[in-house]
């Protein structure tokens, strides 16, 4: 059972190079490929889609997201294409 | 009486592998099994239900929650199935 | 006069095992017995009442409150039964 | 001119034992005597008045305010009785 | 080109003794002379004007602003009297 | 594939001397040339435009932005003139 433990930074580290889905505290949502992160959970994403059902999605080539304002990260890009890594 | 003391990280550590109920500062609520956490109270949950009375619940296989935005954690998954650990 | 000084963590430490009243930044309010805390002012409460004048109070056996989102702590449980400790 | 410099913690330190006026990020306001503080600007106040023009003031014997949520501190208790310390 | 680099704390340090314009995250705005600051970007201002177009400006002799809640700092006091320091 | 990794501070460091687009947590947006930054992602910008579709843009010669309140940074100034740096 001990092998089931998964630390937050381990989960993020497994996602480098893969699609993730990030929900900011303000409600903004992004999907993109995770290029890197640091101990503050700041993240660099590439090939980013800002998801905005009201005004339409926006494509951005590369962004930095401040870890302070990231509320939740879901591996796999969005709820329909989730990563099963164990 | 001194044995009654329970540090925050001790409480979280006891919950690894068990169901918890997490309420974010934004009002979002999640239940799921706690896979791991770190000193910033970032948490990895698996078999997650995002509880949304208005729009219906969402199932997510695995998420990272930013400790900055976690307001409250209740051991036991929800108010109706609480963990009595002493 | 120097003896009047009271550091924040000293005040919290005096409250371990006693009733406190906690007001979160979001407006949520809790009373309960303080079981423990850490340097980030994260707190573990037991025998908790979440005070909600609009929807009614909720009883919770044990919770973790994130120090980041605690706005104010009042020793004594609520405004009517305050602790006079000097 | 160099003597005009006043560091934040120096200003707070000068206020220990005196009346201060604290405005929280949420808009809550308190006046009271500062009993102590720490490096996170957490503060312990005594003989506190929570100022609430809408619902009336509340007296509290002793409170802890989380430095995270303190927006502004004015030496002197309120805008009408300010401390002139130079 | 390397000489063009200006670190955040260098910019603030240059402003000690000068007028600055501070915009808080809540929307509050202050102008005043910067007396000091620390690594958390907490600031002490003197001869302060709280700018409030709706309810009128307020004069305050000395205040502490919590760096956590400072959103933006503009050297020069306000947009009309900016500091040109290079 | 390992060379694809890009750490947050590496991305910011590449942007020093270039145009960036910064979106604050409050919704404020700025474009300008990045003069410097620190480990807290505080940033100094020069030749700044505060973008405000409602009230019109404002020019500011130099500002400090608090990293705490920066939500997102996009290299390249705005969505229409993005930096392709690999």
TrEMBL record, chains A, B, C, D, E, F:
Keywords: Acetylation, mRNA processing, mRNA splicing, Nucleus, Ribonucleoprotein, RNA-binding, Spliceosome
Subcellular location: Nucleus
Highest taxon in the source lineage: Eukaryota
PANTHER family noted in UniProt: U6 SNRNA-ASSOCIATED PROTEIN, U6 SNRNA-ASSOCIATED SM-LIKE PROTEIN LSM5
Pfam families reported for this sequence: LSM
A GO cellular component entry from the record: Lsm1-7-Pat1 complex
Alphabetized SMART domains for the sequence: Sm
Sm domain location: 7-79
The protein, known as: LSM complex subunit LSM5
GO molecular function: RNA binding
GO biological process, one term: mRNA splicing, via spliceosome
Main subcellular location: nucleus
Similarity field: Belongs to the snRNP Sm proteins family.
Organism: Lophiostoma macrostomum CBS 122681
């Amino acid at each position: 059972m001990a092998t089931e433990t998964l630390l937050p930074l381990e989960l993020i580290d497994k996602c480098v190079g893969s699609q993730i889905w990030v929900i900011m505290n303000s409600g903004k949502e992004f999907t993109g490929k995770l290029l890197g992160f640091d101990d503050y959970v700041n993240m660099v994403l590439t090939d980013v889609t800002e998801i905005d059902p009201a005004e339409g999605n926006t494509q951005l080539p590369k962004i930095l997201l401040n870890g302070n304002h990231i509320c939740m990260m879901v591996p796999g890009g969005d709820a329909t294409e989730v990563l099963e890594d164990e």
